[in-house]
Amino acid sequence: MTATIDAPATGPTFMQVSGARKVKDRIATVLVYLSFAVAVIPLVWVVYTVLVRGLGATLSATWFTESLSGLLGRDPGGGAYHAILGTLLQGVVCAIISVPIGIMVGIYLVEYGGNSRLAKTTTFMVDILTGVPSIVAALFVYAVWIAIFGLPRSAFAVSLALVLLMVPVVVRTTEELLKIVPTDLREASYALGIPKWRTITKVVIPTALSGILTGVMLALARVMGETAPVLLLVAYAPFINTNIFEGNMASLPLMMYVERNNPTAAGTDRIWGAAVTLILIIALFNVLATVLSKYFAVKTK
Amino acid sequence: MAKRLDLKDVDIYYGKFHAVAGVTLSVPPRSITAFIGPSGCGKSTVLRTLNRMHEVIPGATVDGQVLLDGEDIYATSVDPVSVRRTIGMVFQRPNPFPTMSIRDNVVAGLKLMGVSDKKKLDELAERSLRGANLWNEVKDRLDKPGGGISGGQQQRLCIARAIAVQPDVLLMDEPCSALDPISTLAIEDLMSELKKEYTIVIVTHNMQQAARVSDQTGFFNLRATGEPGKLVEIDDTEKMFSKPSEKATEDYISGRFG
Lengths: 301, 258
Ligand SMILES: Nc1ncnc2c1ncn2[C@@H]1O[C@H](COP(=O)(O)OP(=O)(O)O)[C@@H](O)[C@H]1O
Ligand SMILES: [Mg+2]
Known about the structure:
Largest sheet of chain A: none
Radius of gyration of chain A: 27 Å
Strand order of the largest sheet of chain B: 6-7-8-3-9-10
Mean pLDDT of chain A: 92
Distance between the termini of chain B: 41 Å
Shape of chain A: extended
Number of domains of chain A: 1
CATH superfamily of chain A: MetI-like
Number of helices of chain B: 10
CATH architecture of chain A: Orthogonal Bundle
Radius of gyration of chain B: 18 Å
Bound molecules: adenosine-5'-diphosphate, magnesium ion
Order of helices and strands of chain A: HHHHHHHHHHH
Structural class of chain B: alpha/beta
Oligomer: heterodimer
CATH class of chain A: Mainly Alpha
Mean pLDDT of chain B: 92
Number of strands of chain B: 10
């Protein structure tokens, strides 16, 4: 008997998970799954609808190789080659202008700007530009390029509006990625007697390149789907035009918009076909972004 | 070629903060000088002043003279970039360039100085890697990324990179503090070899290391946080560790520090 009395009155060392915590855990789990569903369902739905309605058109033999030149609204056949070409041209011209500007501004902000007035002002402007809706960018280009300079509506004007949308994204991406390049590396380079600008081009940029390229590709994909600039700044052409400075030029969003006024079955096919193609191109750029990022990523093996 | 360094009344600042005050010392050529002292007393700061790396930090300034064989490296006509080519540095954490291969890491400095002959670069890469006792370990994977080798090997790669540009002086800031004992020994052996050709200044937390490798030891201390660090004394390593002139040095070395 004495032995039991002397034994210390301690319970087991570890407690059980309390009921309240189990309940909270359940609720949190359910909420997380619910949010996931809310986010994914519309996405799947959109992709599904677009594919079901548009895939047929894109599978026709001529979709990727022919324009709609010479076809009437109700005529089946033809393709979206003119619009694909337009979208890619406008996007690439935009990228050729935006990428150097954006990367250089990013480099200035991180490597040279410091806390200077100019750097702060630039950051502020970039912030504002990031929030500018595409219709405003398009109107601005319209006002300056067409109304003031008296130049014609053209694919180039579209590219300029896209530049306004793309530059802030490239600046931001470059800035963020340069910031995470360790100071150690810059110092290692300076200590070898490598001047600052060569340190930036040979050490800092290559280290951040993979991320910057990914950002650029994603921004480009985003910008190529923009609709407001093409509605305002260039007229639709059902034929192929490769002159970015003159004449009408199609693009996928513009083709969809124009064909909306075409009540025939051919018109419906073209709208959904163009939608599938646009999603496809954007998806392709995303894949390209991943591939480039893998290729240029810092390797350790 | 190895050159001597003289500091005369050097004061070092981070903006308004007076980090180190009144340092005067001489570093003879072809020798190893060790800086010891408690954390935060300004050892790294002094070291970075010796090759004008200090001013890379915004607002950081230096007063006084730092002479390399009698020539003031802080004279207004002197380009800091050329100073850093002459006085190389190895950092506490190994920092090979992650985008470059082992070979390209070693010759990075040379390439940017305009050496472009591939054969010559290969030769110099081999010589520097041999000089850093790393050649045998990496000779079969020279084109593999510099970040893919062990920490100790990375640090020796950084040493190879620093000696590839053939500096006159080599500065090392706690080069072994991130390494295991075996890698540490490898680097200590290497230092003893390197001092035949270079003037070496090393900061170390490890007093046995200072005693093992250095010819001359300087003890830094600071009276209280917020006050500038000072050079308490500098003397032959043997003397510093047997009968230092200052009580503070003796206390620090014997572990009676507080
Ligand atoms: N980049 C910096 N900016 C401001 N103060 C610094 C900087 N680096 C070091 N210091 C300060 O300078 C003093 C000396 O630091 P440091 O030279 O790193 O000491 P140690 O290498 O002896 O440990 C410390 O008070 C530290 O806080
Ligand atoms: Mg230090």
